[in-house]
Amino acid sequence: MRAIGYLRVSTEEQGDSGVGLEAQEASIRAEVKRRGWELVALNSDIGSGKSMRRRNNLGASLRALAAGEADTLVVAKLDRLSRSVIDFAAIMQTAAKEGWAVTVLDLGVDTTTPNGKLIANIMISLAEWEREIIGARTRDAMKAVRARGTSVGRKSNVSAETMRIIRSLRRQGQSWQKIADALTAEGVTTSQGGRWHASTVRRLHG
Questions:
Q1: 154 and 79 part of one domain
Q2: In this structure, what DSSP letter does residue 206 have?
Q3: Per the domain annotation, does 119 fall within a domain?
Q4: Which of 10, 151, 159, 168 is flagged as catalytic?
Q5: Quick one: pLDDT band at residue 14, thresholds 50, 70, 90?
């Protein structure tokens, strides 16, 4: 089994025990050795875990797995890979589609085994449920906004309901763009009557 190890720390975490790059690397190397796997690459990013878009080495790891250069992605801790259940489920779904596995040491998720696949499927189902709940809450809140006839765009014109929606979706790990798309899809227009953009939502959130 060929493995790619992935590590991540934020700048302020680099010196913390248990989450530093050295600690993560030691855990990954020990597990790969225990299983008799081949560690073909060890990639790391330093930066926020809230979004996967700017993590270049994670992207490189996923592309290598898709190209068949390795058989499993190994991470020491789940939050090093993703802080969103939805994003993690998306990675597992991609892995299943492309034929590679995911091994998360602290969570016990290992899709190279039948039990690991079962856990992964449960997490994917939970993520789908979470998406549906978020969608339902967003739609309900949007109805309240529209009922008030609120036109939103500039911060001074944004209703408290709209700000609560934005903050709630952000706390749930949604990207600025996803929040903007949700506002547009539910018919909440900006003060100019146009579409929402990620930059607008980010500016309002502060």
A1: no
A2: -
A3: no
A4: 10
A5: low
Domain count, the chain: 2
Quick one: which H or E segment has residue 73? strand 72-75
Cα angle: 56, vertex 62, 66; to 5 degrees: 145
- State yes or no: is 10 an active-site residue: yes
Please give the pLDDT value at position 18.
45
Clarify whether residues 135 and 67 are in a common domain. Answer: no
Q: Give 117's contacts (C-beta < 8 A, 6+ positions apart).
A: 111
Q: How far is CA 183 from CA 3, 13, 66, 158, in A?
A: 41, 34, 33, 12
Which of 43-52, 87-96, 153-162, 197-206 has the least mean pLDDT?
153-162
Which residues lie below 8 Å from residue 94, measured CB to CB, with a gap of 6+? 62, 66
| pLDDT for res 35 | 94
Of 168, 161, 131, 154, which is closest to residue 204 (Cα–Cα)? 154
Contacts 24+ apart (CB under 8 A), 117-121: 120/92, 120/96
**Range of lowest pLDDT (52-61, 71-80, 103-112, 143-152):** 143-152
**Residue-wise pLDDT tens digits, 69-82:** 999 999 998 878 87
Residue 176 confidence (pLDDT) above 70: yes
